[in-house]
Amino acid sequence: MYTVGLQSAADAFLLASLQAQLVIALVLLFIIIVFGIGAHKDDGHDENSPVFLPGHPLLSIVPFFRKRFDFLNSGFRITGQSLFQFNLLRDTVVVVSGESARKAFFANKGFDLTEGFKVLSGAIPMVRGVTSDLQTRRIALIHKRLSAVQKNEPLNQLIVPILEDTQRVMDSWGSSGTFDPFDKVYELIFQTTVRSLSCAELADDPAIVARLKKLYDKLDSGTTPATVLLPWFPGPSMIKKLLATKEIYDIVVRAIDARIASGISRNDSLQMLLDAGDEKLVVVGFIMGLLIAGARATGTTASWLITFLGGHPDWRGKATDEIKRLLEMYSPPESTSAKPSLSSHLASIPLEAWEAETPVLDAIIHETLRVAQPHTAMRRNLGPEVSIDAKTIPSGAYIMYPFSDVHLNPELYPDPWKFDPGRKEEVQTAFGYVGWGGGKTICLGQRLAKVELKLITSMFLLGFRYDVVDSTGKRPEPLPQPNWNDILLCRPAKGSCYLKYERSELPL
Ligand code: HEM
């Protein structure tokens, strides 16, 4: 469990004088320099080893934290190789690209996602009893429960609450206005993700949902070179992350305890976990871990999807027609005079139709993931040593595969930055599209994410007329482009992209 006294230790540290923090920072710098220089191992020129990034081992990796997309691209450019390596202090990281590397990366049994993510992401502090003890067995159980949430019946039962949450949040936007989709649409997705993956006690309380989102944002924004390179060092960022993790943990545990104490059974994911008799660590791990995994990726996708449609009226029209066709089929106009809300109207479309009768929405989601999901897959080679393109990936090394290698490759996707859901589906190369992962690591929340995206997009398209505008209120030329250097949300430059909306009165 959380070590007793962590909170007071953290508070004390944050309140420590500037002087003390400066001394610590200098010591830290010293450690980094000593260890960093010692870690560069490019002396042997072993021709079986991937080439090292040239330059000072520490300075050359600074952009890894700040501008990862540029860093990886320039690594390939500078080395002129399809594989290169660099050191994160004592750890070796190999970045790979190209078809044979993809095949090895996605298929190799020794390449472990959890180990790679844990070290290279630095997003979630490892707290004994909360995050670091989620070994393979517990993670497997969490994945099993996640697939249970997405079986036909539970997923079907999520449609109404997701639509109702969306209706409530959209009503709060008023009849017209301008907002940043990367704030507002993401907030909406956060709400529906809390609804889908946790419990009514949290999802019914907008203040708690807002607090949770703020805390998860703190975890994201608190990821610094220090938290990745020296995760054990209690620097200010790490302390802030620990405090945020602890508060999230407390909120989740309070909700679980309240449910157990009430003795009332509710129809949600928490109940499913409790009824399965899972130990508390699994229940907490499910909610804490999947909330962030689910909300971030789905939030990025939804924000960009709605923005892209704002700039592409042709595809917006096709998607709107598709949803209206489904409504005509499954929700013929009522003879009563009372007009149903948009959410209850859409709720009459069954799950099977959302999944199997929406080729336009499917194509739009597919293309959004290609062009606006800035994922770099991370693994650790748990052994044995592997050869990729005649270069050795030692046991224990970390391996990275940037999805831009395929998704932004002009040979596979001509004019790759162009949003064009009409592209031909099949790319003739192994793992030519990895929007939901590939090989042995396929997204386990895919079914829920797709349904959530379709429901929210439908509510937005039928509920509002809207345009993409810049900070002056004019349509930006060119339209905003996804920023792959923002590794979490892919947000364009702050202030460059807004949606101007007006509620529409569609005949229902
Ligand atoms: C649009 C939304 C989403 C996208 C684009 C997405 C994409 C991905 C991708 C590309 C991977 C593979 C990562 C890799 O190989 O490094 C992955 C894995 C995963 N995703 Fe998602 N995801 C989304 C939503 C979700 C949601 C909502 C959940 C949970 C409810 C989820 C749970 C997971 C899990 C547990 C894994 C790890 C699978 C494993 O360890 O084998 N994802 N996702």
Automatic annotation (TrEMBL):
Q: Which InterPro entries match?
A: Cyt_P450, Cyt_P450_CS, Cyt_P450_E_grp-I, Cyt_P450_sf
Some GO term, biological process aspect, for this entry: which one?
sterol metabolic process
Q: Which Gene3D superfamilies match?
A: Cytochrome P450 (1.10.630.10)
For the ligand (heme), the binding residues are: 443
Q: Does the keyword Nucleotide-binding apply?
A: no
Q: Name one GO molecular function term.
A: monooxygenase activity
Please give the cofactor(s) recorded in the UniProt entry for this protein. Answer: heme
Which residue ranges traverse the bilayer?
A: 12-39
Taxonomically, the superkingdom here is Eukaryota
- UniProt entry keywords in alphabetical sequence: Heme, Iron, Membrane, Metal-binding, Monooxygenase, Oxidoreductase, Transmembrane, Transmembrane helix
Supply the CDD domains for this chain. Answer: cytochrome_P450
Which family is it part of?
Answer: Belongs to the cytochrome P450 family.
Q: Supply the name of the protein.
A: Cytochrome P450
User: Can you name the source organism?
Assistant: Serpula lacrymans var. lacrymans (strain S7.3) (Dry rot fungus)
